[in-house]
Amino acid sequence: MALDIVIMAAGKGTRMRSALPKVLHQLAGRSLLQHVLRTAADLGADGIVVVTGHGAEQVEAAVTAPHMQFVRQMPQLGTGHAVRQAVPLLHAEGTTLILNGDVPLIEAATARALVEACRGTRLALLTVALADPTGYGRVVRGDPAGRAADEGGRVHGIVEHKDANPAERLIREVYTGVMAAPTAHLKRWLAAIGNDNSQGEFYLTDVVAIAVADDVAVVTVKAASETEVLGVNSPVQLAELERRLQRQQAEALMEAGVRLADPARFDLRGELECGADVEIDVNCVFEGAVMLGDGVRIGANCVIRNAIIAANAVIHPFTHIDGEALGVRVGTGCSVGPFARLRPGAVLAEEVHIGNFVEVKNSTLAKGAKANHLAYLGDATVGERVNYGAGTITANYDGANKHRTVIGNDVHVGSNCVLIAPITLGDGATIGGGSTLSKDAPAGQLTVARGRQLSLAGWKRPAKKR
Ligand code: UD1
Ligand code: MG
């Protein structure tokens, strides 16, 4: 039986007060819509239709998913009108699951349960009981025997908050915006809904009363948690949801054995894979894809994106690692930071030390190499056990092109040197502090390239005239 998914994402999101369409706002590093699409992809749908409208071009350019098509809703005349635009793309038979682009944390298991409850023949609504149901559509129940909602009375319909009478406003069971319906029925029902209500909109929720009149059973499924059905309408709600999601992610990591100094001060905006005995101090942000090997320790206030950090490496506080597209690799037992910066293509072998205010970009450092203070390594290949002095830089850019610096094994580069690339320092070379090198330095020799020191014995400092 075919499963179609419709995701409504055409609304303006006025209360976000933003030029960015609401569904493109970020939650834990992904847009709201991308979260919903990931869940939709997990359900193995035969087709996914995203209804766009406000900021349609921007929305359509921003997201991707398999089996996804867009339809535009112009103008936006309500949720029923939105789903109507998708009708031509739905299969003739089967089930249609309707999701909201601004309800990002709906769980696949819950959506699956809703589809199962529908069985291709019944209208299934995802509902939740809220302490404060203000603003939501209320699930109106009751049957001829007089049974009320909590006694399992049959669903009559959904009444929107703005259209509800005082008695209906007391109902705490609300519609979450998610439903599963028999596709063939849904198509007929959508054609039948009107817009005679307080907002003059075509309400998707009106299909419930139509289904009841049609003698189609209406069933409800309760959401597993409040979090999965919370919608985002304002920056406050977005931040609230971000915290809840961060908490969930932090708890999942801790259950797997990761030691977070404080789960309330942890942010994951992507995927984080951790080995055993990983420790993460407060205020760290992980973005993109990050892998931490066994025994890795991350100090406070680090930002790490697209990087692989091998076993027992220690990243000291305030270190920024951003692999962008190329990635960064930190080898086993390395020590990085505090205040270090690793940029795309930084590849550190085992036991490398990178100290404070050292920047490494597109450079490979072999086992045991050290750059401990105030240095720049760009487009360099650094040998084993090299000691790269404080204040030394590779001058890798001539204003038009980048050039490589090659430093052999056991080279000792003194402090405050400028290595003008392209250049090669042979194995075991020693470079005197303060040298500016524009030519290769031979292996095993001391190379010094700076003004000779001079002392004038008879020199007198000028005195002031009286
Ligand atoms: C809707 C439900 C309400 C439910 C609530 C749950 C209706 C009529 N009401 O109300 O019962 O309790 O969700 O959050 O459905 N959208 C479009 N085109 C439109 C209008 C909306 O695509 O013309 C999209 C929005 O972008 C959003 C979703 O539909 O993703 C819901 O719209 P919204 O205006 O937020 O509906 P609510 O008033 O919250
Ligand atoms: Mg809403």
Can you offer a commentary on this structure?
With 466 residues, the protein is of the alpha/beta class. It folds into two domains: 3-229, Spore Coat Polysaccharide Biosynthesis Protein SpsA, Chain A (Alpha-Beta Complex), CATH 3.90.550; 261-447, Hexapeptide repeat proteins (UDP N-Acetylglucosamine Acyltransferase, domain 1), CATH 2.160.10.10. Helices cover 17% and strands 31% of the residues. It is built from eight helices and 38 strands. The strands form six sheets. Strands 13, 15, 17, 19, 20, 22, 23, 25, 26, 28, 29, 32 and 35 form a 13-stranded parallel beta sheet that branches. An eleven-stranded parallel beta sheet has the order 12-14-16-18-21-24-27-30-33-36-38, with helices on one face. Strands 5-4-1-6-10-7-11 form a seven-stranded mixed beta sheet, sandwiched between helices. Strand 2 (26-27) and strand 3 form a beta hairpin. The protein is elongated and about 110 Å long. The structure holds uridine-diphosphate-N-acetylglucosamine and magnesium ion. The site of uridine-diphosphate-N-acetylglucosamine (UD1) has 28 residues, from strand 1, helix 3 and strand 10.
